[in-house]
Design brief:
22 helices, three-stranded antiparallel beta sheet, mainly alpha, 12 strands, globular, about 575 residues
């Protein structure tokens, strides 16, 4: 019996079971109708017998070797799940391709031994209702947490080099250990060459993405580095930058350290959630601005992009710090594509990731640098002053049309239009500086802040390795500095919540463009860049005067741009 015949028989079986159940329901309905008729109860209601459901539709997915789809497959939806049907098969490969040169219907043993891993070679026998371990290794490897191949590892990997990345992914996903034969084969030069030459970049990028979605993204990247696969998976030479091999090893080593530090701190936040990682604290402002705020701990997509950003951040920094003569020259005729960053080229051209992912990763990196610069410039002290002075901006209502904003300093209500207290003015300047960063990073601000914090923690670790202090003094100093960095960032983030900054990137202007030019605000405004300056000045005033009146804003704009009045 071939795969589509089995699928058809399953459909008939499902249809037969459904008909039996419908028949029983129809009999029950007929009995109810007869009882109503016997009692002559005109007010009684009856239930119409249900209609038989349509049997599942079988679809045939044609083979497409160019997309690594080597087999024709039958598929159908059973309940909530899609089920694929395919023959047991045997394969033979040519030297120049990972696509099977010869494929035929095989035995269960042939199918089991041609698979990538022993834990993927287990079969469920629908007749005996038992799982069968034809290779004799699958159950044992599952129990011991081992990733291994059914055949000699080098043979399996050279047949299909993508399997080396699948092995890494399963090891990270299940937190299993790769056996020695597989590790040795994965480091073989022939496997690296075959991976680079025989596997489409889309498939490599897809495996990397799945690794970073796994439970242990740090372990996956560590395996790529230890197995000497990282240069093949992340080919920095394809970015057009002159990155030397020794620099590449250092870059990815630092990237692994930063990824590990970031991952560990986020795990700590999950275990002991700080104030700013609680969505309840951001609800008033996000509701007012109409922003759906999800904390990083619960946001799978933002976390995945953060892992990319952490691992690749040292590459961005290295390219940015390179002397201009070392950078690849870009001709004027090569266009914007040639002027893209190394990160953009690596993610889009080499890993074939969507442009939105590459953009998000770059936004996180740049905002992390912005947060670091703010804190280095003294914004941590401003945060402390805001907290001690109890400076707060509170949002009431569901939107800016029906709600309102109130400002507070201690127990006193503040009028943002007229308040001249130095502490209040300083807090509003701080609010403006932070809002500029939030306007660029948007909802990914938590990821950027965690990355900035992790870079500081990693720098502290590297500094400690440069000198030695004997005894408990070193350990105590380390803990104090480590906690001091975390407390500084926690205070900075808490101030962002306290000043009502979460969601401010969606703030709508009080005065739109039509009003500025036609309603007498700045009627002589010319077209061009100056209009953007006016709108930016308006956004800055609204940020430093939360809840401020429209009339006060108009007076401010006319004072700043008197030539257009």
């Amino acid at each position: 019996m071939v795969y589509h015949e089995f699928a058809l028989r399953l459909v008939l079986r499902i249809d037969a079971v459904a008909c039996i159940r419908i028949g029983a329901l129809q009999d029950a309905s007929q009995q109810q109708q007869q009882q109503v008729k016997d009692k002559d109860d005109k007010n009684a209601t009856t239930t119409k017998p249900p209609k038989p459901p349509k049997p599942p539709k079988i679809s045939i997915i044609a083979a497409n070797p160019s997309q690594s789809k080597h087999l024709e497959t039958a598929t159908m939806k059973v309940g909530k799940f899609w089920v694929d049907f395919v023959n047991l098969r045997a394969e033979e490969y040519t030297n120049g391709s990972r696509i099977p040169d010869l494929m035929r219907i095989g035995t269960a043993a042939e199918d089991a031994y041609r698979r990538d891993l022993t834990i993927n070679s287990l079969f469920y026998n629908i007749n005996t209702r038992q799982v069968e371990d034809i290779t004799g290794k699958g159950f044992d490897h599952l129990r011991r947490g081992v990733i291994a191949t059914p055949l000699p590892a080098l043979t399996t990997l050279l047949d299909d080099p993508l399997r080396v990345l699948r092995s890494v992914r399963f090891a990270a996903r299940l937190r299993f250990t790769m056996d020695d034969d597989l590790r040795n084969a994965a480091q073989n030069e022939k496997v690296r060459v075959a991976l680079a030459q025989k596997v489409a970049r889309e498939r490599i990028g897809s495996e990397v993405d799945l690794m970073l979605r796994s439970q242990d993204p740090v372990g996956a990247m560590r395996l790529l580095i230890n197995l000497k696969l990282v240069g093949t998976v992340f080919p920095v030479d394809g970015t057009g930058e002159n990155v030397h091999e020794e620099d590449s090893e250092r870059i990815f080593g630092t990237g692994l350290d930063l990824l590990s530090t970031t991952h560990n701190h986020l795990c700590d936040c999950k275990a002991n959630r700080p104030f700013w990682c609680d969505t309840k604290q951001t609800t008033p402002s996000t509701t007012y601005f109409g922003v759906n705020e999800i904390v990083l701990i619960e946001d799978d997509e933002a976390r995945r992009r953060l892992w990319y950003a952490a691992f690749l951040k040292p590459l961005k920094d290295h390219v940015q710090d390179m002397d201009k003569p070392d950078k690849a020259k870009v001709g004027r005729r090569q266009g914007k594509k040639a002027k893209r960053s190394a990160i953009m080229k690596l993610m889009v051209d080499e890993l074939k990731r969507p442009l939105r992912d590459a953009d998000a990763v770059e936004v996180i990196m740049k905002a992390a640098d912005d947060f670091t610069n703010l804190l280095d410039a003294g914004c941590d002290l401003s945060s402390t002053a805001c907290i001690l002075g109890e400076v707060r901006v509170i949002y009431h209502g569901d939107d800016d049309a029906t709600g309102e904003i109130t400002c507070h300093m201690g127990k006193r209500v503040v009028n943002s239009n007229t308040e001249d207290d130095p502490l209040w003015l300083h807090a509003m300047e701080h609010r403006l500086l932070v809002s500029k960063v939030l306007g660029r990073v948007g909802s990914l601000w938590r990821a950027a802040l965690i990355l900035s914090l992790s870079e500081q923690l990693l720098a502290l670790e590297h500094d400690e390795l440069s000198y030695t202090i004997e005894g408990d003094v070193f350990e105590e100093a380390h803990v104090e500095e480590h906690e001091g960095i975390i407390q500084k960032y926690d205070a900075f983030a808490a101030t962002m919540l306290q000043l009502g900054l979460i969601g401010i990137w969606s703030q709508e202007p009080l005065i739109d463009g039509r009003e500025i030019t036609t309603d007498g605000v700045l009627p002589n405004t010319p077209r061009g860049p100056i209009f953007r300056e006016i709108m930016e000045e308006q956004a800055s005033w609204m940020t430093t005067h939360p809840g401020g009146r429209k009339m006060n804003l108009i007076k401010h704009l006319q004072k700043v741009f008197p030539e257009f009045v």
